[in-house]
Amino acid sequence: MSFNTLGLSAELLRAVTDKGYGEPTPIQLKAIPVILEGRDILAGAQTGTGKTAGFTLPLLQRLSAQAPAERRVIRALILTPTRELAAQVEESVRVYGKHLPLKSTVVFGGVGFNPQADTLRRGVDILVATPGRLLDHVQQKTVDLSKVEILVLDEADRMLDMGFIRDIRKILALLPKQRQNLLFSATFSDEIKQLSDGLLNAPVLIEVARRNTAAELVTQVVHPVDRERKRELLSSLIKANDWKQVLVFMRTKHGCNRLAEQLGKDGISASAIHGNKSQGARTKALADFKKGAVRVLVATDIAARGLDIDQLPHVVNYELPNVPEDYVHRIGRTGRAGNEGEALSLVCVDERDYLRDIERVLHREIPKVVIAGFEPDPAIKAEPISRGGRGGQRSGGRPQAARNGAERGRSDRGRGQSQGRDGDRSRDQRPRPQAHSPARAGGRPQSHASARTGVRTPPHVHVRVSADPQSFSNAERDEVDGNRLPAASSGNDHGRGAPVRAHQPQTHARPSTPRSKPRPHRGQEVPALLDGNKRDD
Fold first, then answer.
1. Domains of the chain
2. With bands split at pLDDT 50, 70 and 90, how would you rate the model's confidence at 274?
3. What average pLDDT does the chain have?
4. pTM tops 0.85
5. What are the DSSP calls for 43-109, one per residue?
């Protein structure tokens, strides 16, 4: 069956032909007619099977059926979990809609705020965004979502994993109640179905493959190897097989940088891409990899979703992922659009449990091939893996939502080069202060509220000082919303008594000698120095 039978307009069919597509994929075949009817859908498919075209083509046709107003308004909103995926989706919108009178743009963190705001003020029909930066524009009143007709949540399960559910709910509250909702996801989890119950209106369920299955065109193999010889084996495989384009996955950002540097010393050009890299560095690394300027791109799981690299032949799991479902997304970067691919995993004795979990999810055993000269030493004992764990708790591990949130960061507020909500800055891991500690490191006392009442405030939360608390902007209030101390314990008159210095432990009764009335502070609140540093306001 061809695209001509799906009811698409001549302009869209011409764009599809220019792209070189002949026949629709199963997800496109099932989703496009339903979306054209205006119905809500909940669609899941294997990664790399054309989900983006599956919602972009009918979305463009529905919007183009009505001539754009003189003042363009946002009529379609597409939310994605990562910057790279947002950029690629918006590129697809432009490619498929190049023969239509529609305008689109993309907004995400890590780049300048003002250029995005200028584009939004001029008006667009389609907006692709990450949740964090979109809420920044909402707070600055540079975007109006009251006219949205179609909402798309792409990679919805990943957004839930990364802790975006609260941001999504805030965005949903700004949209018209009457709209078309489309949920697309590479995996089809029970959590996604629960989300759809409160969002979708009598949706059509589309599932073209068994959940969490790897693409059939991807050849998978495991190479057992000692942990200290992984880099040596990787270099040997790349050189011996003359691989020109290899995507390598690591668990940590520091590991990515170290491996890329080591491969460079081996004479193999490599770049690293992860959340600590600036957006410009990430874009350059990906562009160099796509055009062949570097042979190896070393990435964390931030790249496991949305990277669409044409005919990528090789994916290597240098380290197995903490979450078994992420293995499916990693190897899904190859074997896309009908092309064959190869996925190799270098597995040491520490990762046997991870491998067992992955095979359980896949419902199959992955073939094991030992490379001559790299046979594992049976005398080496397994060591605990410091980050992650199944369900959240192996040595040093955290629950899945928190673990994914560590790459996401706490917030993406601000108007400049923010690095927060859209999948980037790691959380501060400093220890929580004790409630009655005599003094903090560096000689700073802890907050009066903590010392007096024993209230344990959240770690590294700043309480703002102001003579007029009403002078805060909404954005400033949100920075500490839910974390501010109660009014009764945030000032100097707690309990209507004189203030007690925080550095004096309350271990014995004080003499009842008369005391002069304390001089009032200039502000209405006393700063709580919860992390030993003043806030830069």
1. 3-207 (3.40.50.300), 218-383 (3.40.50.300), 430-537 (no CATH)
2. confident
3. 75
4. no
5. EE--TTS-HHHHHHHHHHHHHHTSPPPSS----EEEE-SSHHHHHHHHHHHHHHTTTSS--EEEE-T
